């Protein structure tokens, strides 16, 4: 049982870090539905680097850098060119799926390196995820930069007349967010399950995307949600543990999405909006074009 | 660029001067050699109709546009604004008509957004202290930790004012300051403006309508017409009539004469109608009235007293909780909105941009919105676009809608022209009952006069009109019946000739007719 919870927390680590990356971008108004693709890139190139050089550090650095580059690409599409963010994001996912399968297939199989040591039985990245949650919460709610990010995501026009560069702020967020997504991918392929196979993420990126909506764009709710989603994911891998026969792994895998739908439904009720205001960044998904 | 303002410039000295400002847009000279001086401690109104060049001038003074010709001086030194930031740094503040605030953020976060001294890590305590000092100086009161979406329009405007002052504004430009404010909030605003001008700030309100406010508050007034300054005088020398004449270029009859026409059959009969608001409270509480052919029934009141619910129930957009409505003796209490259009109810919503039109649709398509369901205009489910186009051309000619053609999108029209188009589309259906909600809100003097005359024409042709207005003068001058509304109830229904200003004003504030006469 303890093993089950440790694995759940390890799974939630990946959700947390990837979703934090998505959250920063969304708070600045940029939606990246291609998070799965960014993670695949980071995971695959990080895996190949580590396998060929034998260095975990290089593997992680490459994973992070590649994530940042893909984030930059998404930024060019959605910020500079003012394109449709969903289209660009879907493109990144499809590109990521196809290209990583092509690049990675010669490396199919285990990483073959000594495992990264654990702390109290947990992956050290679990603690990194908690640290990142606190840091990102602090930046968003307590710093001038955070106020700028939130303002750009709510109403870029107002931010601009207040002297804030919308483009710069958004680039910072999509690149930074992409780095976190790439990092999360690399954690998967180097630590959580260091075996390369095509499409090995099995939709974890989409769960992280759902998690951001579930969290109502709050890093702490995101952390709690990712532990819940991590547990559900782990149940999907071991469906015999709970309600066997009734719940297959595929049904377990849909539960996070069902919960997210419920949360979105709650957020869209009149009751919620009159009590808490709108949780969604108002300019989310909308290109900002100066006139 | 940072403050060049010499310390010795004080009350009465010219702080901002524009010389020969000219700005051309394709096909139009928006600003034609405009000269303009603003002194510290003065309230200097700029008056002009829609399209007179006010907005362009305002944008130039705030650095959003660069003039093609002319110079701007601050404290005697020539300046050039590349962006609003330059203007802000040189002490120019702007209070936008469409508030530039972030609803999801708190008041204090909105105020410090983009402030150079905000610091890396926000020091909200210190900022609050400094903002409170400004509030104390001018007698403002505001909860700095409230979220902006929770505030009223007047409070949001105050946030913009404080934001500008916190950035060090010495010249405060106010775009249509009293629009969207209730009379009580307007009073408060005028007090705040006075306080600020006494504190040696220069206040420059840009105003399209509401001439009484100009007279009440400003020290000087500059009138623009067709991009030119037509006069700049001390307000004490101006009257409402003289200002209107200068704005429009001809005499304007202010008091539209109430014309009484033969009254016919009862068209609409409303009994004991009540409805909930969006928040689930009883907002309309048992109103009864009837309107006959040839009558205008005016509902006077400060917005938020149940007018919106009344209008929406009658238009079929909201379900009533009790009571009944009949039109030409047909019960329509629960009829849907399309059925009501077919039976002859025409509805002109208060918000012409969000509810009255679709901004990205062409004028023809916008007119279609009220005609697509008429058999005359479609055959086997396919719209007869040719016929609708002809109709559109006819009504824009009749209603004097100024537009290059009928294929431009609705958002290109000015407020007055858009309102004319919506009114034309509704009235051309020859409705039995016309519901008009705030029909002249935000319109200039000329368009207001036009809209009011069209309503009188409608009643002459035998329709009845339900007029909802916050403008007491409008209700009093047009209505055959005046019903002041307060917290969802009519405080009485007065015949137009008995509706005296003071009486109606008192009833709008909640005094029942019976109490008043007792």
Q: Can you characterise this structure?
A:
The complex is a heterodimer of chains A (291) and B (518). Chain A is mainly alpha-helical and 291 residues long. Chain A has a single domain, classed as Orthogonal Bundle (ABC transporter involved in vitamin B12 uptake, BtuC), CATH 1.10.3470. In chain A, 72% of the residues lie in helices and 1% in strands. Chain A has helices spanning 2-27, 35-53, 56-80, 85-104, 124-142, 144-154, 156-161, 166-192, 204-214, 219-237, 249-267, 270-276, and strands at residues 109-110, 195-196. In chain A, strands 1-2 form a two-stranded antiparallel ribbon. In chain A, helix 3 (56-80) runs antiparallel to helix 8. Helices cover 32% and strands 25% of the residues of chain B. In chain B, the strands form 5 sheets. In chain B, strands 13, 16, 19, 20, 21, 22 and 23 form a 7-stranded mixed beta sheet that branches. In chain B, strands 6-7-8-3-9-10 form a 6-stranded mixed beta sheet, sandwiched between helices. A 4-stranded antiparallel beta sheet of chain B has the order 2-1-4-5, covered by helices on one side. The A-B interface holds A 142-148, 150-151, 154-155, 157-159, 161-164, 270, 274, 277-278, 281-282 and B 84-85, 88, 100-105, 109, 112-114, 118-122, 147, 149-150, 278-279.
């Amino acid at each position: 049982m303890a093993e089950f919870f440790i694995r759940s927390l390890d799974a939630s680590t990946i959700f947390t870090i990837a979703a934090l990356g998505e959250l920063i971008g969304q708070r600045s108004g940029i939606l990246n539905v291609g998070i799965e693709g960014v993670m695949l890139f980071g995971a695959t190139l990080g895996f190949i680097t580590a396998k060929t050089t034998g260095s975990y550090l290089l593997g992680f650095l490459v994973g992070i850098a590649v994530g940042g580059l893909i984030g930059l690409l998404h930024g060019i599409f959605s910020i500079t060119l003012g394109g449709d963010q969903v289209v660009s994001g879907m493109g990144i996912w499809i590109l990521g799926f196809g290209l990583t399968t092509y690049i990675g297939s010669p490396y199919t199989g285990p990483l073959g390196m000594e495992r990264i040591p654990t702390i109290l039985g947990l992956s050290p990245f679990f603690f990194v995820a908690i640290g990142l949650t606190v840091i990102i919460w602090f930046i968003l709610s307590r710093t001038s930069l955070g106020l700028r990010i939130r303002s750009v995501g709510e109403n870029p026009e107002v931010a601009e007349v207040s002297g804030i560069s919308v483009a710069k702020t958004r680039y910072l967020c999509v690149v930074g967010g992409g780095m976190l997504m790439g990092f999360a991918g690399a954690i998967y392929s180097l630590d959580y399950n260091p075996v390369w196979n095509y499409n090995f993420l099995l939709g974890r990126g989409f769960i992280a995307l759902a998690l951001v909506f579930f969290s109502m764009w709050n890093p702490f709710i995101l952390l709690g949600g990712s532990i819940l989603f991590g547990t559900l994911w782990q149940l999907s891998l071991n469906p015999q543990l709970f309600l066997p026969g009734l719940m297959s792994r595929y049904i377990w895998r849909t539960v996070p999405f069902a919960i997210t739908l419920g949360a979105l439904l709650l957020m869209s009720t009149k009751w919620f909006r009159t009590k808490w205001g709108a949780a969604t960044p108002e300019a989310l998904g909308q290109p900002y074009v100066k006139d | 660029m940072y403050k060049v303002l010499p310390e010795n410039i004080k009350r009465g000295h010219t702080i901002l001067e524009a010389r020969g400002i000219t700005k051309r847009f394709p096909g139009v000279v928006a600003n034609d050699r405009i000269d303009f001086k603003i002194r510290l401690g003065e309230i200097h109104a700029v008056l002009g109709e829609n399209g007179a060049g006010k907005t362009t001038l305002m944008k130039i003074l705030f650095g959003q546009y660069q003039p093609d010709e002319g110079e701007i001086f601050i404290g005697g030194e020539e300046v050039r604004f590349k962006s609003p930031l330059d203007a802000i740094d040189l002490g120019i503040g702007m209070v936008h008509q469409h508030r530039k605030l972030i609803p999801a953020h708190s008041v204090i976060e909105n105020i410090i957004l983009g402030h150079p001294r905000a610091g890396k890590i926000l020091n909200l305590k210190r900022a609050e202290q400094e903002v409170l000092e400004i509030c104390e100086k001018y007698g403002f009161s505001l909860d700095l930790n409230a979220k902006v979406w929770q505030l009223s329009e007047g409070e949001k405007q105050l946030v913009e004012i404080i934001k500008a002052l916190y950035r060090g504004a010495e010249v405060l430009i106010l775009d249509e300051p009293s629009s969207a404010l209730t009379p009580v909030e307007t009073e408060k605003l005028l007090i705040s403006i006075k306080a600020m001008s006494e504190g040696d700030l220069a206040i420059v309100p840009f105003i399209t309508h509401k001439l009484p406010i100009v007279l009440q508050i400003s020290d000087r007034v500059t009138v623009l017409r067709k991009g030119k300054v037509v006069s700049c005088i001390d307000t004490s020398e101006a009257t409402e009539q003289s200002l209107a004449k200068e704005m429009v270029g001809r005499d304007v009859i202010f008091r539209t004469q109430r014309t009484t026409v033969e009254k016919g059959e009862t068209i609409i009969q409303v009994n004991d109608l009540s409805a909930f608001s969006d928040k689930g409270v009883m907002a309309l509480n048992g109103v009864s009235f009837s309107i006959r052919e040839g009558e205008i029934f005016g509902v006077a009141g400060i917005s938020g007293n149940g007018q919106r619910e009344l209008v929406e129930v009658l238009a079929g957009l909201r379900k009533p909780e009790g009571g009944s409505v009949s039109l030409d003796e047909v019960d329509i209490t629960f009829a849907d909105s399309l059925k009501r259009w077919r039976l002859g109810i025409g509805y002109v919503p208060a918000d012409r941009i969000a509810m009255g039109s679709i901004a990205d649709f062409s004028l023809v398509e916008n007119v279609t919105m009220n005609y697509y369901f008429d058999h005359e205009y479609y055959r086997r489910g396919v719209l007869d676009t040719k016929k609708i186009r002809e109709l559109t051309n006819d009504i824009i000619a009749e209603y004097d809608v100024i537009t290059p053609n009928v294929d431009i999108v609705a958002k290109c029209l000015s407020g007055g022209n858009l309102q004319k188009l919506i009114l034309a589309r509704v009235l051309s259906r020859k409705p039995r009952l016309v519901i008009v909600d705030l029909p002249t809100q935000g319109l200039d003097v000329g368009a207001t006069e036009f809209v009011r005359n069209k309503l009188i024409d409608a009643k002459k042709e035998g329709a009845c009109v339900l007029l909802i207005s916050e403008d007491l003068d409008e209700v009093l001058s047009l209505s055959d019946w005046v019903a002041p509304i307060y917290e969802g109830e009519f405080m009485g229904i007065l015949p137009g000739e008995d509706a005296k200003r003071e009486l109606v004003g008192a009833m709008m504030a909640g005094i029942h007719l019976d109490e008043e006469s007792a």
